[in-house]
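Hey, quick one: can you model this chain's 3D structure?
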Amino acid sequence: MKIIGLEDDGKTPLQKFLDNQLISGVYDVHNPIYCSQKAKKQYLPEILPLDTVLKVMKNGNQVTVKGNMDILVSIIKRALEILNNNNDLMTYKKHVCVGFFNDEKAINGNAYSHGHGYMIFDFKLIQYLYNLPDEMRSSWVFDYLALHEFAHQLQYWNADEEILNVVKNKQSSKNSELAADCVSAALLTNMNIGLPPDLFDVSAVGITGGAYALGDFLYESPDHHGTPEERKKAAQFGINMIIDNMDAIKSGILKHTSGSILKSCNTFVKLTLN
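Sure thing. Here's the predicted structure for all 274 residues.
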């Protein structure tokens, strides 16, 4: 997944998103971008609210996309609502926007996260995760992917030092990507607290399986995201963060914010996976 910065040039967030070279190289501007209802007027009319029927442009024709595409959109919206309910000041009045694209040149696909609340996902990446062996995935593998990109938004909104250093080309993306794996796992596990024990365990398989499958061995690349095992460990730490505090979370004594989750994940990554 690619991280894209927070340029301040007077343009609207949507213009900044579409003008970025990485985005403009793959994204068809005719593809609708879907945003939460909290989106402000400057994001309209180019975008549609999440509650509309999810559609994308495919081969020039508008078609309805069901199943896994819906999951990516709804899970991000739900995560934002949960953090807002926990009185997270960093997510207050924030919006999220989600789009989809098809990069024919990519092997397994990619996803892009822009600092102004925009995330786009390659259909090929969805297909890659869908094709994982059963022992590595569950339906929650798509939730993991969605919340990994959302985690990058949380890093931006919290002015997280790790991601700001990546944007400024001061370090590789490894630490911020592993932290995003951890944050994604924590958020998703928190959402799944009310599931029956067997389904709760299955959700963990999807989280760690997705993280493992997206690992790489590009040690010399600035885009190195961590090895499969490192990404799995980061996700497992996020899961354990919730499990170890299950009673306090259920009772309402402990309400995680994006800042508290990020702090724990960053510390784990630096001390354990560096």
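One thing worth noting: The longest strand covers residues 97-101.
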